[in-house]
């Protein structure tokens, strides 16, 4: 017998499939076909999941498989313990109760947001172990490498009895999680709001899904991407005007991604007014990758926008999207089909610009939203906010960032960071050392949790002006940042002579260098100044969620 | 939205073309209610009427102390508008701010005694008394109350609550003493603000972040529906100015709301205080149809 033959004789090649089939058979008494009995979901989960399993729980910054998470936390820790949770956002109380009760032990996640203090506490108490903290798509990538889930708990709007799933407009992460699980012998359980005979469309085919269960109430979903125009201040209007003139117009940016924030909301609301007055319609901001921000409605209605692809949906925007199928990616049923992974891909390789607000920046333009005492994680911004070196196609905007003539060179994605020089409470936003360094050290992270690395940043925008940092290196780059850092300590280090020189060379631009009038920067320039205005712009199609209604 | 979802496009266009009253500063709000070109500020910044108390507590005082008085005409009749600036200390009533309003009302009363039919308007945008000025603030609020009561047999005292601060505390009493109250649906009118109630009585009593509940209890629409506000108008400077003109044109009401004591006592007696009615039930009981 050869060595290979001997190996063949002992190695079983179907252990994972066998184990999956065994698990499916073990819960047959809790299910009728693929439909799990919602009242017996807890024992069903206790039977389907084994201690030590990797469990992907769908919970991101928008929709939440909350019926399944609320059920999982009721499991008996004597039966179900030490699971390894893979979750993009630790946002619900029960996500951490799982660790408190010993049901889960280890977690790989992207963002903890409101639960970040509790994560730190559980970590200190030794009840929670962190595998790693990721960006969204890194976490999903690992699911296709060495963190394949044994069980996925996901959610959708509707299912039919065969297990086909309609996710509704918030398709988001479901296809990625289900694919990673289903095709490597994991068990996929989907909670749905209702089981129906006919689905509007199929987002996840039945053959990828093992069980469906009708939830006690519709899955939780948060309107995180709505910014009330009422709270946009005049500094943000000024910065928006500078961004339109000094970045979008100057570089001819047609394809872009906006992070969420009042600065970018201001830009969206300035396009139909200020942008229009500059004759820029059709020349900039045509193709977008972003969630369906309500503040984009006036630009869409004024004919600025050709297309929008979305990571997720936004509560209240459903009917508006349905009525604008030329703009959004929608199914044959008419409702939005979002997809976080594809939108991330589009945002990295398909668009020419990322712009986002940050809270803290150092002299090298490294930035972070981490503040002392909180380990919030990363979300999606670091992936959007970088220059992907794997890009090979060119565009005018991408080429416009080439600074030296060499036989081999390449363009760059525009990575724009905006921040006001002082945060609320008079804290300077420009610092010598990011809080992230201290937070990383305290949390035992191998590297400091920087949100956007300085060397990826091409433009920094403050209320003082714009630093075109892609044009310079080293000491001069720091001087350009200091020149727009206002009255912060770093800003006060700027040498007026050097600033004048940087302005003359187009490395720093103040509003007047861009033809932006500070006096014109008033809220009256915004196409909508309240949620009511956005509703009116949409012709009544946008239905703001209660927390955004002030009437 | 007050307009239905299927409203014709021109209604939405008209709405977007409106001049938002909420967006205006106190001075612009006051001017918007007066006949075009008639407004002039009295006791302006050069009169140096600042709060003497705020700097002692490390707070920068403002040249108008958060109240702007504008004289002018409404339908060609002499008028005075006292507008509270919510951007300064939340529209709180300090000694100077309150004295400016009380003084304006007392001067108006003096005008009427001389046969000058000056029309008084108060733009309420206030959390109530300024805590830093404590009793002095409360004292001037009492003066405002007294001045409204003294003036209202002569001329309608018209109050406007537009938002977004709303009208609370002692100034909610002042608003309720007015002969005629105009509000938008963004307005709120109540004794204690939601944050105060949450802080004092706990989140189970009232969740101050639950906007729907807050507005259903004390919002302009509800206050209008239960008869505590006389006119509900859109956040539109022209519409609010028209409502104010209409209030003066209608003249002094036979019995001001705050004098209809027996009627309100009877209404209150119909409720079991241990079983507070929800906003809908209150509308059913006190509403226009009831």
Task: Point out poorly predicted stretches of chain A.
Answer: none
Shape of chain A: globular
CATH-derived topology of the largest domain in chain A? Glutaconate Coenzyme A-transferase
Task: Indicate the structural class of chain B.
Answer: alpha/beta
The total tally of domains of chain A equals 3
Count of alpha and pi helical runs of chain B: 11
Task: Record the strand order, biggest sheet of chain B.
Answer: 1-2-3-4-5-6-7
Q: With helices defined by DSSP (H or I, 4 residues minimum), what is the helix count of chain A?
A: 20
Mean pLDDT of chain A: 94
Q: What shape does the CA trace of chain B take?
A: globular
Query: From the 3D coordinates, which CATH architecture of the largest domain in chain A would you assign?
Result: 3-Layer(aba) Sandwich
CATH class of chain B: Alpha Beta
Order of helices and strands of chain B: HHEEEHEHEHEHHHEHHH
Give the full name of the CATH homologous superfamily of chain B.
2-enoyl-CoA Hydratase, Chain A, domain 1
Structural class of chain A: alpha/beta
Report Rg of chain B: 19 Å
**Overall strand count of chain A:** 22
Instruction: Name the quaternary structure.
Output: heterodimer
How can the largest sheet of chain B be summarized? 7 strands, mixed
Span between termini of chain A: 83 Å
CATH class of the largest domain in chain A: Alpha Beta
How does this model look, in words?
The complex is a heterodimer of chains A (551) and B (290). Chain A folds into three domains: 26-221, Glutaconate Coenzyme A-transferase; 223-351 and 529-538, no CATH class; 354-463 and 466-509, Glutaconate Coenzyme A-transferase. Chain A is α/β, with parallel strands linked by helices and 551 residues long. The mean pLDDT of chain A is 94. In chain A, 31% of the residues lie in helices and 16% in strands. Chain A contains 20 helices and 22 strands. In chain A, strand 20 and strand 21 form a beta hairpin. Chain A is globular and about 75 Å long. Chain B is of the alpha/beta class and 290 residues long. Chain B has eleven helices and seven strands. Chain B has helices at residues 9-17, 26-33, 95-113, 134-151, 170-177, 194-201, 211-218, 220-225, 237-250, 261-269, 279-286, and strands at residues 40-42, 67-74, 77-84, 119-124, 158-161, 180-183, 231-232. In chain B, helix 3 runs parallel beside helix 4 and helix 4 (134-151) runs parallel beside helix 5 (170-177). Chain B starts with 8 loop residues before the first helix and ends with a helix. Residues 1-5 of chain B have low confidence and may be disordered. The interface between A and B is medium-sized, with 20 and 27 residues.
């Amino acid at each position: 017998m050869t060595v290979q033959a001997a190996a063949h004789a002992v190695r079983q090649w179907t252990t994972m499939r066998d184990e999956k089939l065994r698990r499916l058979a073990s819960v047959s008494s809790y299910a009728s076909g693929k439909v799990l009995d919602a009242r017996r979901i807890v024992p069903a989960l206790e039977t389907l999941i084994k201690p030590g399993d990797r469990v992907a729980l769908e919970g991101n910054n928008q929709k939440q498989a909350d019926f399944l998470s609320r059920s999982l936390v009721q499991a008996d820790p004597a039966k179900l313990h030490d699971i390894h949770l893979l979750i993009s956002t630790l946002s619900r109380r029960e996500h951490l109760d799982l660790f408190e009760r010993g049901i889960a032990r280890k977690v790989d996640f992207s963002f903890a947001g409101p639960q970040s203090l509790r994560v730190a506490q559980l970590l200190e108490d030794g009840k929670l172990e962190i595998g790693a903290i990721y960006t969204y798509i890194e976490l999903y990538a690992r699911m296709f490498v060495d963190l394949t889930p044994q069980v996925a708990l996901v959610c959708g709007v509707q299912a039919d009895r065969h297990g086909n799933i309609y996710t509704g407009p918030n398709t988001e992460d479901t296809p990625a999680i289900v694919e990673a699980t289903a095709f490597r012998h994991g068990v996929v359980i989907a909670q749905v709001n209702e089981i129906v005979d006919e689905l509007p469309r199929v987002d996840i085919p039945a053959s990828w899904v093992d069980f469906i269960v009708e939830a006690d109430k519709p899955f939780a979903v948060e309107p995180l991407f709505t910014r009330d125009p009422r709270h946009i201040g005049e500094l943000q209007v000024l910065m928006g005007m500078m961004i339109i003139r000094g970045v979008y117009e100057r570089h001819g940016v047609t394809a872009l991604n906006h992070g969420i924030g009042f600065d970018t909301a201001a830009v969206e609301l300035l396009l139909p007014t200020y942008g229009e007055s500059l004759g820029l319609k059709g020349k900039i901001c045509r193709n977008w990758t972003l969630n369906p921000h309500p503040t984009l409605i006036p630009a869409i209605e004024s004919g600025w926008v050709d297309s929008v692809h979305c990571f997720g949906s936004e509560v209240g925007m459903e009917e508006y999207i349905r009525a604008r199928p030329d703009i959004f990616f929608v199914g044959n049923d008419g409702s939005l089909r979002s997809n976080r992974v594809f939108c991330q891909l589009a945002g990295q390789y398909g668009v020419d610009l990322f712009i986002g607000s940050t809270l803290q920046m150092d002299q090298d333009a490294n930035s972070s939203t981490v503040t002392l005492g909180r380990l919030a994680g990363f979300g999606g911004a670091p992936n959007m906010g970088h220059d992907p070196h794997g890009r090979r196609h060119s565009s005018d905007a991408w080429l416009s960032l080439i600074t030296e003539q060499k036989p081999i060179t390449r363009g760059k994605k525009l990575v724009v960071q905006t921040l006001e020089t002082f945060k609320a409470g008079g804290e300077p936003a420009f610092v010598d050392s990011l809080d992230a360094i201290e937070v990383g050290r305290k949390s035992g992270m191998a590297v400091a949790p920087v949100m956007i690395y300085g060397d990826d940043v091409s433009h920094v925008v403050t209320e003082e002006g714009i630093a075109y940092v892609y044009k310079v290196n080293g000491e001069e780059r720091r001087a350009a940042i200091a020149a727009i850092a206002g009255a912060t300590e770093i800003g006060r280090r700027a040498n007026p002579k050097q600033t004048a020189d940087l302005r003359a060379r187009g490395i720093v631009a103040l509003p007047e260098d861009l033809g932006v009038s500070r006096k014109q920067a008033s809220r009256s320039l915004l196409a909508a100044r309240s949620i009511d205005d956005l509703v009116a712009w949409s012709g009544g199609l946008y239905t703001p969620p209660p927390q955004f209604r002030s009437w | 939205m007050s307009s239905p979802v299927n409203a014709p496009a021109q209604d939405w266009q008209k709405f977007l073309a409106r001049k938002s009253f909420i967006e205006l500063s106190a001075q612009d709000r006051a001017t918007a209610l007066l006949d075009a070109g008639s407004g002039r500020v009295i006791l302006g910044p050069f009169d140096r009427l600042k709060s003497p108390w705020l700097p002692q507590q490390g707070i920068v005082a403002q040249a108008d102390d958060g109240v702007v008085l504008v004289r002018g005409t409404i339908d060609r009749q002499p008028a005075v508008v006292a507008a509270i600036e919510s951007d300064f200390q939340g529209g709180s009533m300090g000694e100077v701010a309150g004295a400016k309003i009380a003084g304006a009302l007392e001067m108006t009363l003096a005008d009427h005694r001389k046969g000058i039919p000056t029309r008084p308007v108060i733009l309420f945008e206030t959390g109530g008394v300024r805590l830093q000025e404590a009793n002095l603030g409360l004292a001037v609020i009492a003066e405002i109350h007294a001045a409204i009561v003294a003036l209202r047999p002569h001329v309608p005292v018209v109050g406007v609550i537009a938002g977004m601060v709303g009208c609370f505390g002692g100034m909610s009493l002042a608003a309720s003493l007015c002969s005629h109250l105009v509000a938008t649906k963004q307005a709120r009118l109540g004794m204690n603000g939601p944050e105060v109630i949450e802080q004092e009585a706990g989140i189970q009593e009232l969740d101050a972040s639950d906007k729907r509940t807050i507005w259903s209890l004390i919002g302009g629409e509800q206050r209008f529906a239960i008869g505590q506000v006389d006119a509900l108008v859109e956040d539109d400077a022209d519409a609010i100015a028209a409502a104010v003109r209409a209030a003066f044109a209608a003249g002094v009401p036979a019995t001001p709301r705050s004098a209809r004591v027996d009627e309100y006592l009877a209404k209150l007696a119909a409720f079991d205080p241990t079983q507070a009615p929800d906003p809908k039930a209150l509308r059913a009981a006190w509403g226009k149809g009831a």
